[in-house]
Design goal:
The protein has about 325 residues and is mainly α. Helix content is about 45%, strand content about 0%.
């Protein structure tokens, strides 16, 4: 009888235990999907509703919200430092080379935060809002969902130098990009899978112009760029001017989260140099591109795994950081 009771208690604990315990930091605390179930049960519903409205208004916003989370996590971890405006001695990350005139979606995060502050004041962190918005943006555009570990807290500082140096750039070499991923605890599988987020969204002419006119410093186009595709790009991305002209990262299905991005790479129609080198500069990454191009389900599975992994980079938990009332400034 005692054995039966013990077994019952064991399975009961399994049933109600969090799906994922991640990163117990020195400040104490864990990340787990049910973090707000008691303190703010409507939190995820509120985030999803506002993200859906924003994406319905502008399809591009889905990619922007995914990218915002990525650019935050690669600098000091997933702590919402990217949302802070310059104030006093604090210099915002928004003015860094990778972010200036590029990252967007701040107003959507503000709207979500305002709604959550009304529902449950100083409970849901800006860092968790970004993680949820990135997940919901993926789902809304047709991509996979995942049980998202929650419980991040917000930083009280930012790092302009970290933003300038840690975020992979469109013209970085393959090894440089891989090194930046490895420094964050991510591997080559994560690199290729997360690059798949370029199945949605746009890039500015200035981010890939070099490929069209002077890839190797010899005034020649990138030989790994399909010639007919390059010709189409030149029509709206001239040698000078048009810096802010936008181009779909995946011209086949620009607003649909799918594996066409990888199929484009195999046809040498990747828009950014950092996209195409996944096929041309490394055998292992090329094989991963082939795998995801041939099987959308496998890509979705790995993307979800890699997003969870990225979202777990150096979170502030327990007594570390704070829960900002306004995502743009410290309390």
């Amino acid at each position: 009888m005692a054995k039966s009771i013990n077994l019952f208690m064991f399975f009961t604990l399994l049933t109600f235990a969090p799906l994922c315990f991640c990163h117990n930091t020195n400040g104490g605390g864990y990340l787990y999907p049910q973090f707000y179930d008691q303190s703010c049960p409507k939190a995820q519903e509120i985030v999803k509703s506002i993200v859906a409205k924003a994406v319905a208004k502008e399809a591009r916003m889905a990619a922007s919200l995914v990218r915002l989370h990525f650019h935050d996590c690669f600098v000091k971890g997933c702590d919402a430092s990217i949302l802070l405006d310059t104030s006093g001695r604090l210099i915002s990350e928004k003015g860094s080379i990778p972010n200036k005139n590029s990252v967007r979606g701040f107003e959507v995060i503000d709207e979500i935060k305002s709604a959550l502050e009304k529902e449950c004041p100083q409970t849901v962190s800006c860092a968790d809002i970004m993680a949820l918005a990135a997940r919901d943006s993926t789902v809304i555009t047709g991509g996979p969902s995942w049980a998202l570990p929650l419980g991040r807290r917000d930083s009280r500082d930012a790092s302009l130098s970290g933003s300038n140096n840690n975020i992979p750039a469109p013209n970085n070499t393959f090894q440089t990009i891989l090194t930046k991923f490895k420094l964050k605890g991510l591997n080559i599988v994560d690199l290729v899978a997360l690059s798949g987020s370029h199945t949605i969204g746009n890039a500015r002419c200035t981010t890939f112009r070099q490929r069209l006119y002077n890839q190797s410093g010899n005034s020649q186009a990138d030989l790994t760029l399909d010639k007919s595709y390059a010709s189409q790009l030149r029509a709206r991305c001239p040698k000078s001017g048009g810096d802010q002209n936008l181009f779909a990262l995946d011209f086949v299905s620009p607003t649909r989260f799918d594996n066409n991005y990888f199929k484009n790479l195999l046809s040498f129609k990747g828009l950014l140099s950092s996209d195409q080198i996944l096929v041309t500069k490394n055998q292992e990454s090329m094989e991963l591109v082939k795998k995801y191009a041939s099987n959308n389900e496998i890509f979705f599975e790995q993307f979800a795994i890699s997003m969870i992994k990225m979202g777990n980079i150096s979170p502030l938990t327990g007594s570390k950081g704070e829960i900002r009332k306004n995502c743009r400034k410290m309390n």
